[in-house]
Amino acid sequence: MPLQKLLKTEWSGLLLVVILAIMLIGYLKPSFLTPFNIQILLAAISVNMVIALAQMLIVGIGQMNLSVGAIGGLVAISFAGLMDVFQLPIPLAVLVGLLIGLAAGLFNGVIIAFTGISAFIITLASLSVFKGINLGITEAQPFYGVAESVKSFGNSSLLGTLPLLIIPMLVCLVGVWVLLNRMRYGRHLLAVGASPTAASLVGISVRNIVIGTHALSGLLAAVAGMMVVARLQIGQPTIGDDWLILSFAAPVIGGAVLAGGHVNVIGTLLGVTTIAIITQALVLFEIDPFIVQIFLGLLILWAVGINRLRDLRLTLFSKPA
Amino acid sequence: MIQENVFQEFGRKSFQNLKKWMVGAALACLTTTPALASDTRVALVPGGPHPYFAAWEKAGQDAKRDFGLSGADYRVPQKWELSQQNQLLESLLTQGYNGFLIFPGDPVGTNSIASELTAEGTPVIALAGCLKQPTPAVFCLGTDTGNSAYLGTKELIKTLGGKGKIAHFTGFLVDPNTQLRIDAVQKAANETGGAVEVIQVIADIDAPEPAEEKINAFLAAQADKVDGIVTTAWVPAVVAANSLRKIGDKRIKMVGIDHDEVVLKAIKDGYVHGTMLQNPYGQGYIGSFAMDKLRSGCKVNQNAPFKTTALTNQFIDSGTAFVGRDKVDTYIGAMEAVTKDLMASFESTYLVCN
Amino acid sequence: MSSAQGSSTKSMGSDQSSIRKFFFSNEFGLLFLIVVFATIFALLTTGFTSRFNLYALGRNISIDVVIGFSMMVVIVTGGLNLSVGSIGVSAVMFGGWLLEGMGSNLPVAFIFLLLGGALLGAINGVMVVRTGVHSFIITLATMSVYFGLMIWLTQAEAFRNLPPEVATFGRTKIYGYLSPLLLISLGVAILLAILYRYTSLGRNMLAAGANPTAAELSGVNVKRTFILCHALSGLLAALAATMLTCRTGAAIPSMTGHIGQDWLLPAFLAPVLGGTLLSGGKVSVLGTFFGAVLVSLLTNGLLLLQVSEFWVQAVLGALLLSAVLLEKLRNVVLLQNRFI
């Protein structure tokens, strides 16, 4: 019975793919399953998962947030800069970082909700603003003075395999899962994504949901930005520049519907895992670096194909008669 | 370091900018009218923001003071993008700069804007990277990147005892220097007659996140098989130094590049064998000096002992040096000495003045 | 002017009302902003009105305009094309290979590279209509695939021995301050305006974008029309990249940035500022043209004002955000006062 239930969940196929990929790569390259390698893999997954969650929520309300990377980058350099220049204690620096992310998300959300202008346009413009502030502050130079305990947080692991970075990721993952699956706010969020008109007819404040979700997205982007600082050990101004493709690819691979109303936390996690495994496998098998880019693109197309198949399967299941 | 004062300076800079706006018009008027001496206003323009070029700012300021120039400003395109650089150069010409020290965004693509600048009567010197001939640039002053990668690999091979397996981490594939570096590392390995083997080249990682991911993945898989690492770009050097420190492995020998403090500290602590230093300060300082001379009637000595590279036969080496643990505290002095040497004979060697 | 709406094939109406309409139009708003900013820059900087600056500004505008068009023609369908930068650079690299590798002459290479761009665009279009997946995801994937293939095939080597005419053309000055590239972009604008206003193909594109179901019912082959829109986008991207190549004299793999993403901002800003609806069905050629002019003008002016290069992007972003908001505000006010 539990097995049957598992098979019916939408991410079962993806889970199978991930398990098979791990077994196959582990068989061909035994070093893939060494504790150190697992730790590296999990660290990559942790950071990327938080990035993907930041985008997934916005996809949930049927919008896009192109500024996820710019917010993450701005928070990253602020976080590192506060420690470097003002020697701010870490909890305070983290708090300010979170507040900046929250404020940036609110900024997006308020403008989108009150003007009704497409989120795509607003976040495209705010991307430029946030990235511009980042460049203006740093003049493209990194901040080095990251506190030692932050550095060691990004580098340490439990039992040699579980990086500490997995903790903030799990907190975010569980938080978002509970929000979407157990809380009224989450149900409203998805309802707005499925149909804003219908949602407002049943008394949901679309405006509040849009603002709140963008604020949450900014908050998650902030967490991801600070996690990257811990992992890289420096506050690089370029942090966040290449989050865009990943942030969309993972939720879509995980079964999110771009039109809104349907997202899946576990599916997104598996999407992130798939991307991380493939990235690492390309290095392990010494594949021509020129080809990596093609793989990433094909991966998204493949995922889209899988989703199409899943949709077909779902329709088959739902019509038993 | 520059970045330490960023926040304090931010306020001041904004104010200065405001002032600049107000007096900008008057200033531009003054500087475009030719004066008798030292009306030279040099712009030092890198290809984009990169820590390597940060030393140009101080070099320009020092040159302005030492040679009485009317300006020697470090102006950075906000992104590493050829059209951004072109746009900035066009704007700087309009703003009245009359000498350009340019790191070419592309060895051929930048020739086009360079010839437009020279057509307006402002000389161009290629700095830190060369323009492909035929070019309007009077000469190229920079690091011989292929040679630097070759020497670095030789140092690595020496400390490995002449045999072993090495990996090479390098920069963007679209950067023409990257192929030169890959070839140079391979050449140094080939010279050992098979005793040293390059087992993997990881490229396209001159940005911190991909570098982190790929270098760690490599070390996770191959740490026990690889004996040495050579990095020939700034970010991979920083990330690899951090990774070696993280896994605490002093068996793997690494030769880095440039003078990021992460790399220097790793050398001190024994995680990195050494680094191939370049001389960005000297490039900016001597380049500004030469520009002023060229504008005040000097010509390039066509019989000077220029070196020849793949791009140009008018190349002047700004110097490169290997810095190991023994010299890591005094490396600035070492590079200043190189600059002084080059400076002392520069005018008599490379210029003909009345 | 050359703005056109899909649903209505409205008659021109009386001259007076169309003039009045123009004054309340988005295009006029942009023109007004352009004049205001140009005046400000001319007064505050000395270099702005210099021959060289006007020439350089015109040349930058010309390329941004065509980049904006390459996005606009897909936005018509209610979709978008993130791969414009990748298609552009792939096309000119193909052209460079034809010139250097195959020894073909300039006109032949030019025609084939345009066709190559159109083909890549058409592939996007086919995938979009066949799978029914939003073009955002399809082109997000193909921007990676096209760029990766191009980098792999060229091994990131630029084509730097193009015929000298290419670079000479990019440097040509007509009457000292007019670039021939600007004439090309004007020509493209006129052709596009004719397409949308006077041809059945263009009207079908607008109708299909405005309401695919209705268009299908009235006999428009929506799928084929969408594929054509994507092909046209690829063709214009290839043209923009060719103009950029004239500017640099070499076909360089990095000329549109990593996976072509440097083009995204100019590509979206021009049509969006110009009043093209992201939901499709409405297009403004003149507005897109003015949008690109405004963005290039602001960049040029901010640099001349010696705003630190690093703050230019932040200021530009803020200005654009306010432009979008002001536009919205203007519409609301006009609607409330029943001007439109």
Description:
The complex is a heterotrimer of chains A (321), B (354) and C (340). Chain A has a domain at 34-241. Chain A has helices at 2-8, 12-28, 35-60, 68-85, 90-115, 119-138, 148-155, 166-182, 184-194, 196-201, 206-232, 243-253, 265-284, 292-318; strands at 157-158, 162-163. In chain A, strands 1-2 form a two-stranded antiparallel sheet. In chain A, helix 3 crosses helix 12 (243-253) and helix 4 packs parallel to helix 6 (119-138). The longest helix of chain A is centred in the last third of the chain and has 27 residues, at 206-232. Chain A has 14 helices and two strands; from the N terminus they run H-H-H-H-H-H-H-E-E-H-H-H-H-H-H-H. Chain B contains eleven helices and 14 strands. In chain B, helix 3 runs parallel beside helix 4 (109-119) and helix 5 (145-159) runs parallel beside helix 6 (176-190). The two termini of chain B are 41 Å apart. Chain C has 340 residues and is mostly helical. Chain C has one domain (27-35, 48-335): ABC transporter involved in vitamin B12 uptake, BtuC (Orthogonal Bundle), CATH 1.10.3470. Chain C has a two-stranded antiparallel sheet. Classes of the chains: A mainly alpha (321), B alpha/beta (354), C mainly alpha (340).
Low-confidence stretches of chain B: 1-36
Q: According to CATH, what is the class of the largest domain in chain B? A: Alpha Beta
User: Could you give the count of β-strands of chain C?
Assistant: 2
CATH architecture group name of chain C: Orthogonal Bundle
Q: Strands of the biggest beta sheet of chain B: in what spatial order? A: 2-1-3-4-5-12
CATH topology of chain C: ABC transporter involved in vitamin B12 uptake, BtuC
Termini separation of chain B: 41 Å
Please name the CATH topology of the largest domain in chain B: Rossmann fold
| Element-by-element helix/strand order of chain B | HEHEHEHEEHEHEHEHEHEHEEEHE
How many structural domains are formed by the residues of chain B?
Answer: 2
State the secondary-structure class of chain C: mainly alpha
Mean pLDDT of chain C: 86
